[in-house]
């Protein structure tokens, strides 16, 4: 079996609508989590509603999105999701989004592990040239974790969000294929750096 | 500016709705200019027939009506009502007061005559004074220097460089985000009124 979607702490999987609906309905009740993830105002939707949306997604032939659940290797517990959106195959570019709905897994390397797997998938399977992301200014912990896996700041969209009476920036970050290759241990890194 | 100022009337041009009988033929011609198409979207550039253009106009009006997040105007000459281009606000986030902007002057011989600047002035006033938005964004590829100069000349500030996000003609280009905040626009408008 190919281990492309397996890391040190987590693996990525495809899930049925009823499974993700259960988690989304639950996770979206955590507004702190939603505010790290989404610019839309927090709203609460039933499991039924989520399931209907996700089932409708099944009928769409989308090539500009990739979505995986994040499960722990230890107990196969579903703790979050990771995905590509605005994927432009002809430009070799995509944006990535990640969120861990289960708070007890924050700050322990699970998110970084999932991100490393996703980058490997981007560069070794989809053969993309770069991966970008958007992170909110008030989420420095996420910014640090993205830097840890090799993302580089590319600028800020100024004062684009208003929350709690203040205006906040979006920060864009990105990693190029060659930057990612140079970070790979052993053979692969050496090969790419001598090119 | 008085309360009965004509928001859609500029010096050389006016903003008007789509003309479903006359416009498709004209804009179908413009879509055969792939440089123009590339400057407007990251999707693969391709020309549209008159029939495809008619469908697209229907889709645009449907989106304006249903999404409440898009405004689309044609730009027409005050002299003889001829169609010069279009200007649109998209992805409006009412909660945060933000949106992005697209503008096109279709026929190359109509460019650099002040039509685009005239239309931009109208849309800025419309966005800030009528819609009460807080900021405007524009996304321009590094392969579109004329577009970059145009937005910077009118006060837009370069904020983000998504490195090598575009792959065109075997070459990579950065994708540049520009932004204009309400207070920046007010300062510029103030200067104009003192002239």
SSE inventory with pairings:
The complex is a heterodimer of chains A (195) and B (195).
Chain A: E1 10-13, H1 17-27, H2 31-37, H3 47-59, E2 66-72, E3 78-88, E4 93-100, H4 110-125, E5 130-136, H5 140-148, E6 152-163, E7 166-176, H6 177-182, H7 186-194
Parallel strand pairs in A: 4-5
Antiparallel strand pairs in A: 1-2, 2-3, 3-4, 5-7, 6-7
Chain B: E1 13-16, H1 23-30, H2 34-40, H3 50-67, E2 71-77, E3 83-93, E4 98-105, H4 115-130, E5 135-141, H5 145-153, E6 157-168, E7 171-181, H6 182-194
Helix pairs in contact in B: 1-3
Could you walk me through the main structural features you see in this protein, from its secondary elements to its overall organization?
The complex is a heterodimer of chains A (195) and B (195). With 195 residues, chain A is of the alpha+beta class. Chain A has a single domain, classed as Gcn5-related N-acetyltransferase (GNAT) (Aminopeptidase, 3-Layer(aba) Sandwich), CATH 3.40.630.30. Chain A has 7 helices and 7 strands, in the order βαααβββαβαββαα. Chain A has helices at residues 17-27, 31-37, 47-59, 110-125, 140-148, 177-182, 186-194; strands at 10-13, 66-72, 78-88, 93-100, 130-136, 152-163, 166-176. Chain A has a 7-stranded mixed beta sheet, with helices on both faces. In chain A, α1 (17-27) packs across α3 (47-59). The longest helix of chain A has 16 residues, at 110-125. The model of chain A is unreliable at 189-195 (pLDDT under 50). Chain B has one domain (13-194): Gcn5-related N-acetyltransferase (GNAT) (Aminopeptidase, 3-Layer(aba) Sandwich), CATH 3.40.630.30. In chain B, strands 1-2-3-4-5-7-6 form a 7-stranded mixed beta sheet, sandwiched between helices. Chain B is globular, with a radius of gyration of 17 Å. Chain B has 195 residues and is α+β, with helices and mostly antiparallel strands. The model of chain B has no long low-confidence stretch (mean pLDDT 96). The two termini of chain B are 15 Å apart.
């Amino acid at each position: 079996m190919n281990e492309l979607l397996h890391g040190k702490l987590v693996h990525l999987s495809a899930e049925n609508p009823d499974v993700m609906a259960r988690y989304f309905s639950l996770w979206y009740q955590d507004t702190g989590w939603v505010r790290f993830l989404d610019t839309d105002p927090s709203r609460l939707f039933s499991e039924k509603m989520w399931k209907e949306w996700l089932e409708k997604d099944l009928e769409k032939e989308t090539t500009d999105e990739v979505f995986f659940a994040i499960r722990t290797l230890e107990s196969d517990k579903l703790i979050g999701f990771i995905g590509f959106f605005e994927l432009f195959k002809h430009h070799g570019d995509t944006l990535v989004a990640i969120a861990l709905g289960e708070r007890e897994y924050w700050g322990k390397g699970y998110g970084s592990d999932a991100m490393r797997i996703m980058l490997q998938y981007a560069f070794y399977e989809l053969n993309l040239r770069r991966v970008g992301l958007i992170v909110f200014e008030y989420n420095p912990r996420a910014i640090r974790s993205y830097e840890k896996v090799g993302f580089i700041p590319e600028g800020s969209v100024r004062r684009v969000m208003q929350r709690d009476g203040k205006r906040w920036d979006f920060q864009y970050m990105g990693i190029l294929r060659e930057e990612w290759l140079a970070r790979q241990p052993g053979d692969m890194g050496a090969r790419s750096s001598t090119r | 500016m008085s309360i009965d100022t004509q928001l859609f009337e500029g010096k050389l041009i006016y903003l008007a709705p789509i003309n479903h009988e006359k416009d498709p033929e004209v804009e179908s011609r413009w879509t055969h200019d792939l440089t123009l198409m590339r400057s407007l979207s990251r999707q693969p550039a391709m020309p549209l027939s008159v029939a495809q253009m008619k469908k697209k106009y229907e889709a645009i009006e449907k989106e304006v009506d249903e999404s409440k997040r898009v405004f689309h105007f044609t730009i027409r000459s005050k002299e003889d009502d001829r169609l010069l281009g279009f200007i649109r606000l998209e992805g409006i986030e009412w909660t945060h007061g933000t949106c992005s902007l697209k503008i096109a002057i279709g026929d190359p011989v109509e460019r650099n005559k002040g039509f685009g600047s005239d239309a931009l002035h109208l849309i800025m006033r419309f966005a800030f004074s009528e819609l009460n938005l807080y900021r405007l964004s524009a996304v321009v590829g590094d392969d579109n220097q004329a577009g970059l100069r145009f937005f910077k000349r009118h006060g837009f500030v370069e904020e983000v460089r998504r490195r090598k996000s575009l792959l065109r003609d075997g070459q990579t280009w950065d994708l540049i985000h520009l932004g204009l905040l309400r207070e920046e626009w007010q300062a510029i408008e103030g200067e104009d009124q003192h002239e």
